[in-house]
């Protein structure tokens, strides 16, 4: 693990937009003003974590901090004062910072024989942080791990200290969420075996076995595990969210033939079987076997699943499991819930609001035109 | 510290050199009217001719009627190769793109399923609506090519009435799909393109232009990787000609020549064309990359089987691969000087 000093961190490139943070700082935030965080890349192949401020349909960039490589999800500490940007598979770094000051606390690395999958989640009280990882040198067994980090917030800065790890009971874990009980982690085991030596090549297409695993966050004990039916064993479970009632919504990425009709969305309640969801054609086909992000609405009655390969955003009813709407968004992927519906971002650099009441898209204006938003968007 | 961060900001701020503001809808409609619609009209016309040729073949299978059927296959395939790069719009309906041509077929699914269909001798499987719902492996060009170009095709056609029924069924199904794509574009999707600025199927007219650009840019990459690179090994001895697109009908390089002609046409032939989307200074470089590639392809035979028989042919294919790569890189670099993004999360997501 490496802690970098401030001089080294500055050399990574922090860009603060002076005078712009005043209305957007935590606590002093005006009503109707919201902050979001996302990883992004620019056209010179430089990678960033950025914090945005949205007010009345207008978005301003508050800060961007250069990352050592392409980031994926940005996890926000429950008190809103810190974030962790997580390296995309198979990266090995975590960059920790503050959305208020743009200040950087540290950059740390996972152990040499581990890599990350781009996702992490804080415990309810913010005292622990969990990351999905791979023990990649174990090429035979299920090698997914949860890395457990103790969080120290003394001095107003977040510091992570690795304290434990436990198995995810699967291979290729991806997103993980904390269940409403605050004690259970739900983990998407994507099922795909990769190794840093062969970059992102899938090594077990014929035998992959994706699953949803519920683990006790304190002990790592397996509480429940659900597998997809055999016909769908190549549907890699990647992204997920949970609502206040404990329903988990899952987004899959099918590794088999492009023409096959395979569910790409599922929901799950503890103790029950999966509910597999298909959209009516032509939407199902337009999803192009790939869901990039899943988020419940604020009240949990609907969820959005983004399909950046198919340039579609799909909206689903939680109770009936029916597709409510689908809208076009070129390379749209990052999604997060806001009171009116969903804010979403695209790899084209666009930001927009999907209004759930009107079932319509409202474009947002932005002062930032050089960033292509990565897969996930978080509200601060 | 603030002064320092400002200095860094100045250094790191990307310099954007944007293309002059482009009117997207006129570009989209010009490409639609002078490239896409005529391309699909040729495709539908040539493919509908498979049906009478198959009927003649099945009324009396001779060397002559088989040759006429093969000629019809080549004409249809020529037209398909000229419009194969359009991978959005009606071609994506009803799995038409995969049902027309399920390729590459890495697991040999098509061959296995076609053998099973022939062995089954079940006429009910050949009813048009039943056949359209069958696996993509038994539909489209790869299936028809297997049926017509195998060494014992004529013998089978003469001995096995059901074999010829399958030929007729695949041909009629191809004709039906080509007519469907053509009419949907002409009657519906042209209007969708014309109205792309009203959020609906497209986000904007610019969004529609990006689909045309992807046909060019991603098409270039696909031809390089799937149609050449997968065949070439380290050296000629290591090449795998059976991974080529049309090795049975012996026209794999002809396909590439037609694809490149279509790329060039979508870039330059309409008024306005995709070339208007780029900064004027970048256009000569793109045209030069086309010229190099077309010069290389002109030295190659239509047959990849023949090309791979000599070191000279193998090297020619290597050059074509490199020229396609250069064209792709030139287009990518030129796109950076516009404010268009083809996609990012969709290319290599997670």
Provide an overview of this structure.
- Chain A has a single domain (6-379), classed as YVTN repeat-like/Quinoprotein amine dehydrogenase (Methylamine Dehydrogenase, Chain H, 7 Propeller), CATH 2.130.10.
- Helices cover 3% and strands 49% of the residues of chain A.
- Chain A has helices at 6-12, 283-286, and strands at residues 14-16, 33-41, 47-55, 58-67, 71-76, 83-87, 93-97, 104-109, 115-122, 128-134, 144-152, 159-167, 173-178, 184-189, 211-216, 222-227, 235-242, 248-254, 265-268, 275-277, 293-296, 302-307, 312-317, 323-328, 332-338, 341-346, 351-355, 360-363, 365-366, 372-379.
- In chain A, strands 1, 2, 3, 4, 29 and 30 form a six-stranded mixed β-sheet that branches.
- Chain B has 350 residues and is mainly α.
- Chain B folds into two domains: 22-200, M75 peptidase, HXXE motif (A middle domain of Talin 1, Up-down Bundle); 204-341, no CATH class.
- Chain B contains 15 helices and no strands.
- The two termini of chain B are 37 Å apart.
- Classes of the chains: A mainly beta (380), B mainly alpha (350).
- Chains A and B meet through strand 1 and strand 30 of A and helix 1 of B.
């Amino acid at each position: 693990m490496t802690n970098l000093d401030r001089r080294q961190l500055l050399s990574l490139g922090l860009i603060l937009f002076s005078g712009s943070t005043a209305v957007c700082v935590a606590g002093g935030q005006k009503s109707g003003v919201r902050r979001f965080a996302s990883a992004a890349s620019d056209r010179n192949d430089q990678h960033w974590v950025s914090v945005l401020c949205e007010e009345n349909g207008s978005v301003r960039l508050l800060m961007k901090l250069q990352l050592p490589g392409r980031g994926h999800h940005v996890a926000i500490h429950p008190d809103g004062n810190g974030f962790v940007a997580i390296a995309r598979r198979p990266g090995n770094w975590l960059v920790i910072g503050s959305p208020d000051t743009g200040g950087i606390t540290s950059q740390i690395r996972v152990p040499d024989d581990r890599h990350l999958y781009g996702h992490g989640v804080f415990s309810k009280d913010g005292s622990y942080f969990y990351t999905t990882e791979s023990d990649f040198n174990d090429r035979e067994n299920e090698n997914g791990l949860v890395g457990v980090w103790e969080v120290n917030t003394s001095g107003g800065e977040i510091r992570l200290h690795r304290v434990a790890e436990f198995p995810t009971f699967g291979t290729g874990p991806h997103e993980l969420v904390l269940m409403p009980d605050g004690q259970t982690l739900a983990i998407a085991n994507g099922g795909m075996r990769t190794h840093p030596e062969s970059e992102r090549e899938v090594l077990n297409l014929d035998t992959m076995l994706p699953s949803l695993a519920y683990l006790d966050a304190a002990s790592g004990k397996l509480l429940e595990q659900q597998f997809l039916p055999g016909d769908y064993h190549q549907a890699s479970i990647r992204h997920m969210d949970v609502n206040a009632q404990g329903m988990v919504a899952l987004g899959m990425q099918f590794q088999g033939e492009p023409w096959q009709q395979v569910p790409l969305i599922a929901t799950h309640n503890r103790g029950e079987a999966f509910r597999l969801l298909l959209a009516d054609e032509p939407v199902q086909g337009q999803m192009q076997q790939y869901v990039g992000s899943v988020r419940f609405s604020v009240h949990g009655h609907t969820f959005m699943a983004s399909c950046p390969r198919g340039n579609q955003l799909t909206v689903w009813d939680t109770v009936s499991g029916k597709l409510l709407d689908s809208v076009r968004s070129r390379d749209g992927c990052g999604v997060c819930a806001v009171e009116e519906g969903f804010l979403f971002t695209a790899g084209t650099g666009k930001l927009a609001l999907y209004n759930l009441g009107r079932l319509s898209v409202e474009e947002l204006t932005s002062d930032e035109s050089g960033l292509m938003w990565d897969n996930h968007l978080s509200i601060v | 510290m603030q002064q320092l961060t400002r200095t860094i900001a100045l250094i790191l701020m990307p310099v954007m050199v944007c293309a002059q503001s482009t009117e997207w809808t006129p570009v989209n409609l010009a490409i639609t009217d002078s490239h896409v619609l005529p391309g699909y009209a040729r495709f539908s016309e040539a493919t509908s001719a498979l049906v009478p040729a198959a009927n003649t073949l099945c009324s009396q299978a001779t060397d002559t009627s088989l040759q006429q059927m093969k000629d019809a296959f080549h004409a249809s395939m020529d037209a398909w190769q000229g419009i194969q790069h359009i991978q959005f719009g009606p071609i994506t309906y009803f799995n038409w793109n995969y049902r027309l041509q399920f390729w590459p077929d890495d697991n040999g699914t098509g061959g296995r399923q076609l053998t099973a269909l022939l062995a089954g001798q079940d006429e009910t499987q050949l009813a048009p609506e039943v056949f359209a719902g069958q696996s993509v492996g038994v539909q489209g060009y790869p299936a028809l090519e297997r049926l017509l170009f195998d060494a014992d095709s004529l013998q089978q056609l003469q001995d096995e009435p059901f074999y010829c029924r399958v030929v007729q069924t695949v041909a009629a199904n191809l004709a039906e799909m080509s007519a469907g794509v053509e009419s949907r574009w002409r009657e519906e999707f042209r209007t969708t393109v014309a109205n792309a600025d009203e959020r609906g199927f497209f986000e904007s007219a610019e969004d529609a232009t990006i689909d045309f650009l992807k046909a060019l840019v991603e098409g270039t990459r696909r031809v390089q990787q799937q149609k050449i690179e997968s065949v070439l090994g380290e050296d000629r001895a290591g090449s795998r000609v059976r991974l080529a697109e049309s090795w049975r009908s012996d026209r794999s390089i002809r396909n590439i020549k037609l694809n490149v002609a279509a790329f060039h046409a979508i870039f330059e032939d309409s008024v306005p064309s995709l070339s208007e989307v780029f900064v004027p200074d970048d256009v000569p470089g793109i045209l030069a990359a086309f010229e190099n590639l077309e010069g290389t392809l002109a030295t190659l035979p239509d047959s990849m089987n023949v090309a791979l028989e000599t070191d000279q042919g193998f090297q020619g294919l290597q050059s074509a691969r490199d020229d396609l790569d250069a064209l792709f890189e030139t287009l990518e670099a030129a796109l950076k000087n516009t404010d268009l993004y083809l996609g990012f999360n969709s290319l290599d997501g997670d």
